[in-house]
Specification:
209 residues; alpha/beta; Rossmann fold; seven-stranded mixed beta sheet; 9 strands; globular; binds 5-O-phosphono-beta-D-ribofuranosylamine
Length: 209
């Protein structure tokens, strides 16, 4: 059994997808040990409490720098003996202290098919606005390991979602979540928890045997 920490800043629908799959018996090897938010009012904290998962509120204002925040987060997670960190809409940049302590043990969900519509400034609705503006006909979501860059780490899973002619950023965001994010993230956690993800030369090999 591995101990999982989910980091959130907002609504936490991806967190909910994980908690639902845990309750449904899909994640027998993963224990949700902790949910951390940098925002006090993040609704995801309520979702965690409702599922009986321990929560922590760690605001950035308590720290002088992003590095100091990352050190405090790292220390908290090491204290809690966390094996896997899941970023599910966490809007604080993860820096060296976290990335080095949890190399290939942090996963992020991004609402596009990386390497499209990713990197600095591509978060939330902005990702979908840019996809619509460019006129792509297919978008999707990506789960990847986190390295020191923004959305540059090894790709674990991707799923495509069609763009419809009358999509708005909001309708597209919802469909990408429903059809891709809420499925991919539990699947990635399951694969990790069962030791089926192997990273070689920045490429993830998924053991499906
Ligand atoms: C999702 O779109 C995810 O891809 C992105 O942030 C959003 C979080 O949504 N990284 P929620 O808080 O899980 O509802």
């Amino acid at each position: 059994m591995i101990r999982v920490c989910v980091l959130i800043s907002g609504g936490g629908t991806n967190l909910q997808a994980l908690l639902d799959q845990k309750a449904a018996g899909f994640l027998p090897e993963a224990e949700f040990a902790l949910v951390v938010s940098n925002r006090k009012k993040a609704y995801g904290l309520e979702r965690a409490k409702a599922a009986g998962v321990k929560t922590a509120y760690l605001p950035t204002v308590r720290f002088d720098s992003n590095e100091a925040y990352n050190e405090a987060l790292r220390d908290l997670l090491l204290e809690e003996k966390i094996d896997l960190v899941v970023l599910a809409g966490f809007l604080v940049v993860l820096g060296a202290p976290m990335v080095e302590a949890f190399k290939n043990r942090i996963i992020n969900i991004h609402p596009s098919l990386i390497p499209s519509f990713c990197g600095d400034g591509f978060y939330g609705l902005k990702v979908h606005e840019q996809a619509l503006k460019r006129g792509v006909k297919v978008t999707g979501a990506t789960v990847h390991f986190v390295d020191s860059g923004t959305d540059t780490g090894p790709i674990i899973l991707q799923k495509a979602v069609d763009i419809l002619p009358d999509d708005t950023p909001e309708s597209l965001q919802l469909r990408v979540m429903q059809q891709a994010e809420w499925k991919l993230l539990p699947e990635a956690v399951k694969l990790f928890s069962e030791g089926r993800l192997h990273v070689k030369d920045q490429v993830v090999q998924v053991d499906r045997s």
